[in-house]
């Protein structure tokens, strides 16, 4: 599939790298806020050998990006900002372009726009689009349903300079209906990012954990999401919607 990418900060560049290293998809263009890298090649900028165009445009160039049929894409992956949905929504609705959004938080108006978009094409939104974190959340919800009496603790560990409680940890807490104020935090040098859910049972414990190693994980998650909703009907999906089908381990006996 031909992909257009919104966002080219640290995470956006890692996502671009993941797309360029994937043989099933091509990176057609990248849109970023400023004109600093206008019309440069993303593969060249990232130092990757690739024949894919991946031309970089600024948001001032959107009329050119969406008006030139040679730049047409099958999917847009968004790692930029909440207001970007307004910039590509009309194009995505008209052209039936799949949208994968990894924006951490939307306001009510932006969510309404995303739902409107889902009435015309396939849309997936996930505040943390890594496969590991979303598996962790669904697995924890399954275990919580099995043993609602278990004690649950959420622990997040990050690098020393991170001041706030992890947004991902708050998402986990919300999914498990736990108070975000009870999240345990650890800050220490050498840690990139770790989330753990501890289930305390009588006479045993279960620990579900996820370690962040590289931002490319966001790109792999976005591509997993894209591949997963290609065959689905129009609508607004979450990573949980996709993950749940993999938890059905029932099989017919031979």
Brief descriptors of the model:
254 residues; alpha/beta; Rossmann fold; Dihydrodipicolinate Reductase, domain 2; 2 domains; seven-stranded parallel beta sheet; four-stranded mixed beta sheet
Describe this structure in words.
The protein is of the alpha/beta class. The protein has two domains: 2-129 and 216-247, Rossmann fold (3-Layer(aba) Sandwich); 131-211, Dihydrodipicolinate Reductase, domain 2. It is built from nine helices and eleven strands. It has helices at residues 10-20, 42-46, 62-67, 84-95, 108-118, 131-146, 167-175, 216-229, 239-244; strands spanning 2-6, 26-32, 55-58, 75-78, 98-101, 122-125, 151-158, 184-187, 193-201, 204-211, 235-237. Strands 3-2-1-4-5-6-11 form a seven-stranded parallel beta sheet, sandwiched between helices. A four-stranded mixed beta sheet has the order 8-7-9-10, with helices on one face. Helix 4 (84-95) links the parallel strand 4 (75-78) and strand 5. Helix 1 (10-20) crosses helix 8 (216-229) and helix 4 (84-95) packs parallel to helix 5. The radius of gyration is 20 Å and the shape is globular.
Produce the secondary structure layout.
Layout: E1 2-6, H1 10-20, E2 26-32, H2 42-46, E3 55-58, H3 62-67, E4 75-78, H4 84-95, E5 98-101, H5 108-118, E6 122-125, H6 131-146, E7 151-158, H7 167-175, E8 184-187, E9 193-201, E10 204-211, H8 216-229, E11 235-237, H9 239-244
CATH superfamily of the largest domain, by name, is: NAD(P)-binding Rossmann-like Domain
What is the CATH topology assignment of the largest domain?
Rossmann fold
> In one word, what is the shape?
globular
Beta strand count? 11
**Tally of helical segments:** 9
- Mean pLDDT across the residues is 92
CATH architecture of the largest domain: 3-Layer(aba) Sandwich
CATH class of the largest domain: Alpha Beta
- Low-confidence spans: none
H-E string = EHEHEHEHEHEHEHEEEHEH
How would you write the strand order of the largest sheet? 3-2-1-4-5-6-11
């Amino acid at each position: 599939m031909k992909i257009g990418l919104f966002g080219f900060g640290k995470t956006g560049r890692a996502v671009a790298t993941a797309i360029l290293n994937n043989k099933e998809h091509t990176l057609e263009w990248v849109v970023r806020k400023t004109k600093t890298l206008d019309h440069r090649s993303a593969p060249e900028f990232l130092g990757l050998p690739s024949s894919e165009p991946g031309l970089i445009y600024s948001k001032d160039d959107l009329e050119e990006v969406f008006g030139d049929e040679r730049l047409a894409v099958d999917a847009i992956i968004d790692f930029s900002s909440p207001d970007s949905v307004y910039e590509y929504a009309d194009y995505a609705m008209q052209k039936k372009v799949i949208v994968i959004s990894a924006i951490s938080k939307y306001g009510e108006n932006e969510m309404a726009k995303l739902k409107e978009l889902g009435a015309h094409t396939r849309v997936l939104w996930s505040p943390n689009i890594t496969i590991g974190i979303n598996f962790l959340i669904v697995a924890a919800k399954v275990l919580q349903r099995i043993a609602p009496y278990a004690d649950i603790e959420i622990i997040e560990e990050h690098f020393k300079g991170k001041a706030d409680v992890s947004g991902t940890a708050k998402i986990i807490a919300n999914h498990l209906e736990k108070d975000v104020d009870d999240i345990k935090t650890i800050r220490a040098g050498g840690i990139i990012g770790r989330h753990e859910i501890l289930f305390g049972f009588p006479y045993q414990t279960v620990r579900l954990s996820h370690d962040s190693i590289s931002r490319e994980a966001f790109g792999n998650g976005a591509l997993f999401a894209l591949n997963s909703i290609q065959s689905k009907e129009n609508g607004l999906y979450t990573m949980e919607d996709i993950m749940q089908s993999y938890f059905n381990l029932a099989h017919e006996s031979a």
